[in-house]
Amino acid sequence: MANRIEVMMDRLLQKRVLRRWTRVADNAAALPISQLKLQRGRARALRRQIDRVIHVADSRLTLPLIGANAIRRPMGSDWVYRPQIWRGPLNVPGLAAVESKTALGDEVTLFHDCAVSELTLRQIRNTRETDLAPFGLRMDVFRFDGSFLSLVLNLPQDGVTGLSRRHVVRLDAIVEMEKPLEIFARLNVRHGPNTEQIVRELPLHEQEVFVEFDLAYTKLNEKRVEAMWVDLIFEGPEMNQIILRDITLSRRPRAEL
After folding, report:
1. Region 115-132: what's the mean pLDDT?
2. How many CB atoms lie within 10 A of CB 78?
3. Which of 15, 142, 197, 202 fits a disulfide with 118 by CB distance 3.0 to 4.6 angstroms?
4. Among 136, 150, 139, which Cα is nearest to 82's?
5. Other CB atoms closer than 10 Å to residue 229's CB: what's the count?
6. How far apart are CA 123 and CA 137, in angstroms?
7. Nearest 5°: phi and psi at 85?
8. Are residues 25 and 40 in contact, defined by beta-carbon separation less than 8 angstroms?
9. What pLDDT was estimated at residue 7?
10. Rounded to an integer, what distance in angstroms lies between the CA atom of residue 101 and that of residue 151?
11. Among 13-27, 65-79, 127-141, whose mean pLDDT is lowest?
12. What's the pLDDT band for 143 if we cut at 50, 70, 90?
């Protein structure tokens, strides 16, 4: 009963406040300067709090919802993963003039050899109906005087546990860019003192962009697997904006023959 009364009082108060500010807005052109300054100060103070509510509400209510982690799971997969930057908000959402070996979040690190960095990284909010990831990553590249540019995605330990030469690792991506460029994905698996590497070019012209890494063609020591990471290598990135709307990884055991 008390809650119903509170709701009714809140609605009445809301209507009263709205009527008051409607009158102020209607009469603003005729108010004396002293009163107009007073009302402007009150309106700005009120607007700051309203803008805060709208900002948080837009962020939380925009689809896909923050915290949602829907992932397309390829058939037979025993592990699927979406890195942090595409999954949840970062404390530092963006960086400018990014130096080499700079991390954005806990799992993504940028590498390049530019003498002068004209690169920016920013986590952005996905809003399209087709997006499954709540966030995307935008990289703006202006003048580029280096010879390489790559993003390193460090993968969690549960992706390594039980990894064997029977596994096929898959990377799915949703990529947008201002002008065409080549993007290569390199899977790295460290086992003891050695690291196995497999490179694939992302088929950006295809409707579904994914690459697969078959570990059967490596010399992987299954008993000594320690870590796994992916390098995304961008060829000819100068004067381009690249948006990675989503990145997911999965692995599946190959069927026995």
Report:
1. 89
2. 11
3. 142
4. 136
5. 17
6. 5
7. -65, -25
8. no
9. 77
10. 9
11. 65-79
12. very high
- Give residue-wise pLDDT tens across range 236-254: 999 999 999 999 999 999 8
Tens-digit pLDDT profile for residues 41-69: 888 988 888 877 776 666 666 666 665 66
pLDDT of 92-110, one tens digit each? 889 999 999 999 988 999 9
DSSP 249: E
What's the pLDDT at 155? 96
8 A C-beta contact, residue 170 and residue 247? no
Q: Residue 197: what residue type?
A: Q
Residue located via tokens 């055991």: 253
Q: Checking phi first, is residue 76 left (phi over 0); if not, alpha (psi -120 to 50) or beta?
A: left
Predicted pLDDT at 130:
79
Residue 49 one-letter amino acid: Q
CA distance 171 to 234: 16
d(CA 95, CA 78): 35
Q: CA angle at residue 111 from 198 to 187, to 5 degrees?
A: 15
The whole-angstrom distance between residue 20's C-alpha and the CA centroid of its chain comes to: 42
- More confident site: 14 or 183: 183
Contacts of 83 (CB under 8 A, 6+ apart): 107, 108, 153, 155, 247, 249
Q: What is the DSSP letter of 116?
A: S
CB-based burial label for 154 (10 Å; 0-12, 13-18, 19+): middle
Rounded distance between C-alpha atoms, residue 8 and residue 3, angstroms: 9
Res. 152: pLDDT tops 90: yes
- Take residue 106 and report the two structure tokens written for it: 């806990």
Cα–Cα dist 134/75, whole Å: 23
